[in-house]
Amino acid sequence: MQYSFLIILLVFMIVMMFVQSRKAKQQQQEKQNFYATLEPGTEVITIGGVIGKVVSVDEEYEEIVIDSEGSHLRFTFKAVSRAYVRPAFVHDDEVDENGNPLPQDSPEPSDSEPEQIESAEVVETSTEGLPYGAREVEESQVEATTDTEESSADQPSKADQQ
Length: 162
Prior knowledge:
Blueprint: H1 2-37, E1 43-46, E2 51-58, E3 63-68, E4 71-76, E5 80-83, H2 112-126, H3 133-154, H4 158-161
Antiparallel strand pairs: 1-2, 1-5, 2-3, 3-4
């Protein structure tokens, strides 16, 4: 009885090792095929996270030159992780709580939009069409504030008068 359990355990371990080695060989073959099909213009990502387009491939020395935003970088084949595909970005406002896309209806005007338009008209009429009207008002307010500070500095304080 004890020997049968050990034999079953040993057979199970041998089967697991066989399956793992087949899987590793398959992944290695896929990598070799990937390196063989690399050609200029393919966008790749390295194991360090550098993203760029392949400029040249040297199969003899197993080197690859990548152009990443104007910088040409040379890597070995083993440094290239995979072909890069930019993930699609979906904003949280475009999906519901389950991640399903929201229907694309024409947006209806909200109650706050007319108020914004009215306030824009008020600002536009208050400047009376002057392109730098607001800037002139701000500068005059700054000058008036500066003048009052200077005049108060010229007047002696109550402690100095006593």
